[in-house]
Amino acid sequence: MKKILLFFLCLFIFSHANAENDKAFFWQVKPSQTASKQAIVYLMGSIHFADKSFYPLRKKIETAFAKSDSLVVELDINNIDPQTYNQLLAQKGVYKDGRTIKDVVSEETWLQLRQSLQQLNIPYDSVKSYKPGVLVLTLAAVQVMQMGFNAELGIDVYFLSKAKAKQKKIIALETLTQQINIFLDIPNAELLLKESLYSLDEAELQMAEIVEYWKTGNNKKMNKLLFEDALNDYPAFDKIYDSLFYDRNNKMVLKIEQMLKQPKGRYFVVVGSGHLIGEKGIVNALRKKGYTVQRR
């Protein structure tokens, strides 16, 4: 199965094209007609790594943000202390007992890892103490950057900068500790690492499908590619998806519901696009709860 690293890449970026002409992953959420005076929520599928060609965003998106009172993000990276981040990563993300990744994975996985590190020009000594979950994220991030994308141009960073300039309220759905724990405590981490390594060679080509589906707003095909196909190939990934997506989706929905129950206000929510789509995605969950969710 060769879609796993692609899956993590999709958490970072979905398009090379100018987003002004793209449909994008953008929805408006309203309460039922009987509660028309309640708040409105906008849902924007985030791309955490992007490039300059991604801007400007569509006018509908910018207008919705301008009308919003608050920006809601997974994590307010403006308030993250790099020292705290490094400390948390060191506490849980690396082996401190002298073991290396070579000692804890199979010979097959180790040989593939060594080859992939050479391919990406990553010195083994710089990552040898990393646990599998951290290695997966490292490989995905390096792959994205080598494709020419930058975290500083990501959609979440873009709106955080605008919110700060406009003095809008910023609400974080998760804490730094929560996000780090999610990735470091991921179940079946070695299996995830193994499949990520085998998908490395085809990641850039497979991104073409991701780009097409995002540009055309085809969330059904995106969901099939990233979720349904992966789970059909590897049922053991079910627990991984529960940890990375479905459990988090449920918690995010509860917080979004609290916003929708407010007597007034507009909330512009920016989360990873993978959280929004599919049967267990945020969009479908809100619809099941009776909210009106419209693609914009």
TrEMBL record:
Phylogenetic classification of the source organism: unclassified sequences, metagenomes, ecological metagenomes
Protein name per its UniProtKB record: TraB/GumN family protein
Any Pfam family matching the protein: TraB_PrgY_gumN
